[in-house]
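This part of the workshop introduces the protein records we will be handling. A record pairs a protein's sequence with a compact description of its fold. Comparing a sequence with its tokens is the quickest way to learn the format. To make this concrete, we reproduce a full record directly below:
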Amino acid sequence: MIQRERLLGILRDCGSVVIGYSGGVDSVFLARIAVDVLGPQNVLAVTGQSDSIASWMADTARDVAEQFGIPWLEIDTEEMSDPRYAANPSNRCYFCKDELWSKLLGVARERGFRAILDGSNADDVGDHRPGAVAAREHGVRSPLLEAGLTKSEIRRWSRELGLPTWDQPASPCLASRLPYGLGVTPERLRQVEAAEGGLRALGFREFRVRHHGDVARLEVGPGEFASLVEQRGQVNHTVRAAGFQRVLLDLDGYRRGALNEGLSAGQLVQIGSAP
């Protein structure tokens, strides 16, 4: 497949790489391929840890790195200390990624790596993505996107490689569960993580717990609606135990990019100079 050969060529051209490694499908796949192409001595997968990242994601990142011999480093990021990020404007992701890539740039320079990579893929170009602006400003490359690899192709190749993340549901940061304008606080993020952890323990796979103050709005995949109805008592108890007073079901169900629904150029609420 031409996309696969293109990816290998891009990685060879990079020489040595630091990879923003979240533990998600794309970054795990990229790190695994990079180790195969460049050798472990020329790869460092770096996970930024903060309150905005679910703890199970860091566990996945560490476990997969150990299993597949991917050199791994965990660093603390401090986007929560940035009032522009905490205000939760529609360009919130810019400030998070600016913090992350600044830290990774320092790691790369200190250790002599030539390139910094992220896991953006060919399906990521259509959504509202202010974090991509920060990546460009820091010279971060996106080999999966450059090679034209889509999410489905990455999942298929990941399965061939035996990666346990091949069918892992999408897992953006916890702050994406808060509607723009609702301040990002550690307490709210912990509520979301606790509620989602409880739903995961009940067997749900594709879902989101959207934080609306005292109200939690649940999005679940259409195929899991019946299970939610059957377990509605447990679901209600689990989500309320995380600190919510009411639990509502979104009948449109889980869908990618729901946070940005209804946004237009005239509706974007932004802070600072970043696009």
The first helix runs from residue 2 to 14. The first strand starts at residue 17 and ends at 20.
